[in-house]
């Protein structure tokens, strides 16, 4: 499996799925069915109310409603309560590989959560156009955008949608996710009281409507019927259409073929606009002059849009050079707007301010007003959405008439420009607001960039994205208000506001109880046989602010770790990459990992027997292939999360994953490694074999993660302040040579 861009193999046992199938009394076993999937397991150290207790609650209520209402679905509906999604999608894989109903699934809805509420977003749909078209027609509270599927791969993580629609099923379906409330995602405060009011109700109404539409559709087909259509040569699927919701009120959708035609129309308008504006003395020269004017306007405005992104990023960078903390806006999203919107406006207006005199000498008042409108329209064809261009085209004649009757600088003329743009402005604010809130909440997990660059990245990203949103929302108004705002006084005021906001932002603490910093605390035990070699507390950092920042603001935790007041990163000891092997490849997302000495004196009060790997048999074939039979005993550990094996050396095959090896990984220039994750509780040992292609030794490193902590680790966890969310566990590391 490729997860987070890394290749690993997965083996599992004794995970639980709970399935319910609702059908009419006359339904056949092979009738095409609709699957609705949600997982009831939670991530390590989290209660999982949002992710994904909210999903299970919605599904249970929909199930109750279907039964109590007496509605009989035209096709069967299968409810899959999934027991191992957080362990890299294992339960959905188990269903698709082993369950008898898997071949009957003709469509699916995957219910997920990346937060604790909000209207749930369709992040992925397909294969083909049918699922999104059904959603468009049936969703009660629609929230979907086809661009989300293009952005989704950029976000670290995955969902069961991948298993059903891509890796194993090629089943048409929808991936529907809560995206707001990301502060609580995968934390210890993902509790019931954090669920945003009304979210589950809205989701439930959407789900029941979607299930009725999908189960009634004539396009619902089981696996065999889909295969027959492909064999018959009629299996070409339509491209995923272009679709989006407007303020969660209704959906707009059209095919990509239609989009290709529509998106050419604004460019045609740009080419013919000079004909209408200069009809009295039209000629080739005047037409070319008009196009040249449009081109200059496009370049001018494009420069403003680019600077609207660059200037906030520069301000963010300069602030961090003199600040003790990054992400001061994290617990105060409004602060990001105060910090970055004025500087984005400065960037947007800067080209007009620089070229102000030359622009003023080129055009008369009315000509300048009308030309600037469709100059921006021309730019809209290139960089903004098609719908912005459409409304700007409609705005141009309305504003021209307003100027003719009321004059260029009157409020009525301004209203003649703004009123036709109310719909796209509202849409831009809606999309922009959701994007910036989602982005700010996710910055608490954005730690993959190492020091010193990682300290700057989050602020630069939020500043740049704010600039993009400002360009989208305010950019269309620049042709009218830009001439006034680019005067020295307003521009200087915006610069001063930016500087003051940046200075004052350092007075705000980045975190709070409801917007905590994520911290990984691993109590690490190096063992051999049933003996302890070494113990340590290893801390993993998940965002831009360093562990030094945390420990300076958490004196009780620092004292527990025997850290003095002068602690800094230069004097810190960094954890070896193998220390966090149990979390691989998630550990690759940490920007910083520090280690501190631990104690082992009382550990046998908790663990009588330690995890160990031992050989039961070794054979050699005539072709000199060594087969080593092994058993993994997890000892007296009672709450094992996973066991991870890292095998280096001449590995040729093993008894896992249908005897197929994953693509080897190489970490920090080390040897090629084959990574295997084992999960699932059992009283029996893991029994397997590995084969070596030569007599060279096989090296096996093992990490067994236990959710249980000893008394000292519990005390250390409790020493961190409430604004730190600590995900804590124990990890037992050992190495073997065979």
Gyration radius, rounded: 30 Å
What percentage of the residues does DSSP assign to strands (E)? Answer: 15-25%
Count every helix, treating DSSP H or I runs of 4 or more residues as helices. 22
Largest sheet: 9 strands, mixed
Overall morphology: globular
Strand order of the largest sheet: 3-20-18-22-23-12-13-15-14
Distance between the termini: 26 Å
> Mean pLDDT, nearest integer?
88
> What is the helix content?
40-55%
**Poorly predicted tracts of residues:** 363-383
Structural class: alpha+beta
The total strand number stands at 23
Index terms:
738 residues, six-stranded mixed beta sheet, 40% helix, globular
Notes on the structure:
This protein is an alpha+beta fold and 738 residues long. Strands 3-20-18-22-23-12-13-15-14 form a nine-stranded mixed sheet. The longest helix has 38 residues, at 284-321. The chain is globular, with a radius of gyration of 30 Å. The model is unreliable at 363-383 (pLDDT under 50).
């Amino acid at each position: 499996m490729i997860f987070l861009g890394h290749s690993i193999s997965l083996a599992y046992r004794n995970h639980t799925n709970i399935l319910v199938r609702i059908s009419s009394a006359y339904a056949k076993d092979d009738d095409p069915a609709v699957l609705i999937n949600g997982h009831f397991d939670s991530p390590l150290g989290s209660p999982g109310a949002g992710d994904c207790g909210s999903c299970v609650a919605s599904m249970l209520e929909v199930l109750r409603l279907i039964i109590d209402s007496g509605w009989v679905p035209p096709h069967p509906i299968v409810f899959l309560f999934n027991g191992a999604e957080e362990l890299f999608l294992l339960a959905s894989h188990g269903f698709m590989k082993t369950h008898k109903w898997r071949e009957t699934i003709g469509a699916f809805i995957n219910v997920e959560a990346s937060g604790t509420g909000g209207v749930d977003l369709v992040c992925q749909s397909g294969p083909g156009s049918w699922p999104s078209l059904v959603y468009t027609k049936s969703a009660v509270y629609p929230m979907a955008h086809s661009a989300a599927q293009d952005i989704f791969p950029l976000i670290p993580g995955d969902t069961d949608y991948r298993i059903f629609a891509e890796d194993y099923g090629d089943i048409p379906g929808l991936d529907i996710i809560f995206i707001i409330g990301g502060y609580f995602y995968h934390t210890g405060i993902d509790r019931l009281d954090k669920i945003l009011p009304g979210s589950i109700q809205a989701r439930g109404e959407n789900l029941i409507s979607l299930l009725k539409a999908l189960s009634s559709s004539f396009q619902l087909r089981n696996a065999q019927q889909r295969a027959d259509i492909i064999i018959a040569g009629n299996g070409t699927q339509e491209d995923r259409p272009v679709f989006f919701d407007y303020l969660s009120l209704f959906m707009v959708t059209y095919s990509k073929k239609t989009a290709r035609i529509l998106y050419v129309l604004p460019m045609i308008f740009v080419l013919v606009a000079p004909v209408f504006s200069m009809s009295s003395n039209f000629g080739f020269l005047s037409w070319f002059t008009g196009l040249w004017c449009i081109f200059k306007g496009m370049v001018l405005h494009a420069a403003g849009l680019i600077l609207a992104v660059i200037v906030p990023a520069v301000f963010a960078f300069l602030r961090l050079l003199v600040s003790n903390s990054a992400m001061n806006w994290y617990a105060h999203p409004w602060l990001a707007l105060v910090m970055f919107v004025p500087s984005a406006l400065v960037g947007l207006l800067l080209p007009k301010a620089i070229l102000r005199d030359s622009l003023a000498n080129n055009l008369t008042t009315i000509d300048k007003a009308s030309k600037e409108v469709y100059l921006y329209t021309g730019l809209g064809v290139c960089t903004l959405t098609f719908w912005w261009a459409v409304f700007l085209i409609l705005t141009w004649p309305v504003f021209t008439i307003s100027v003719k009757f009321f004059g260029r600088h009157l409020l009525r003329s301004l209203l003649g420009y703004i009123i036709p743009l109310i719909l796209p402005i509202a849409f831009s604010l809606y999309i922009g607001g959701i994007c910036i809130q989602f982005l700010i909440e996710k910055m608490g997990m954005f730690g993959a960039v190492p020091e010193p660059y990682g300290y700057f990245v989050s602020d630069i990203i939020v500043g740049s994205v704010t600039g993009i949103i400002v360009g989208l929302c305010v950019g269309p108004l620049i042709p009218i208000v830009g001439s006034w705002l680019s005067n020295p006084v307003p521009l200087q005021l915006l610069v001063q506001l930016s500087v003051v906001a940046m200075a004052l932002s350092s007075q705000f603490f980045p975190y709070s109880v409801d917007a905590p910093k994520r911290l990984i605390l691993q109590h690490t035990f190096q063992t051999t046989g049933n003996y302890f070699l070494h113990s340590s507390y290893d801390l993993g950092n998940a965002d831009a602010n360093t562990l030094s920042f945390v420990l300076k603001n958490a004196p009780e935790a620092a004292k527990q770790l025997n850290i003095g007041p002068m602690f800094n990163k230069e004097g810190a000891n960094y954890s070896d990459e193998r220390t966090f092997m149990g979390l691989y490849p998630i550990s690759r997302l940490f920007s910083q990992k520090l280690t501190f000495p631990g104690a082992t004196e009382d550990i046998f009060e908790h663990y009588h027997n330690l995890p160990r790997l031992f050989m039961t048999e070794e054979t050699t074939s005539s072709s000199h292939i060594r087969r080593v039979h092994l058993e993994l005993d997890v000892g007296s550990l009672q709450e094992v999360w996973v066991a991870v094996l890292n095998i280096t050396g001449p590995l040729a095959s093993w008894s896992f994953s249908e005897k197929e090896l994953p693509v080897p990984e190489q970490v920090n220039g080390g040897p090629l490694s084959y990574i295997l994750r084992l999960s699932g509780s059992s009283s029996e040992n893991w029994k397997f074999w590995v084969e070596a292609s030569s007599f060279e030794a096989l090296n096996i490193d093992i990490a067994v993660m236990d959710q249980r902590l000893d008394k000292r680790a519990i005390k250390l966890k409790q020493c961190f302040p409430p604004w730190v969310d600590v995900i804590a566990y124990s990890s037992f590391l050992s190495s073997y040579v065979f």
